[in-house]
Amino acid sequence: MAGEPVFKPNENIDEEARGLSIVGSSAEAAAEQIAEIARSSAPHESGDYAAGIVVQKTKTGARVFASDYKSAWIEFGVPSQGKPARFNLRRAVEAAGFRFKKGH
Question: Can you give the residue ranges of every domain in the chain?
């Protein structure tokens, strides 16, 4: 049918959408909210773990991570020492109303 418009999907739509300032600022705001919740629920023996929970802008949005050297022990536990996992960051993601996807 000549003259009819043809739909051509944009293969880069996800990357282009992430590049919009509104998407980046929304991701950063969500990351800040998650970090705040994680800091408030972090163990406070020394305060280093809570102080090490930071937000970092990325090319596609933002991320939250814990930079203290003990972070993995606190997050995932130390089974050989009988210390259970706390999953503090994961729980903060869920408390902020987001879903945590394992492996992402």
Answer: 13-95
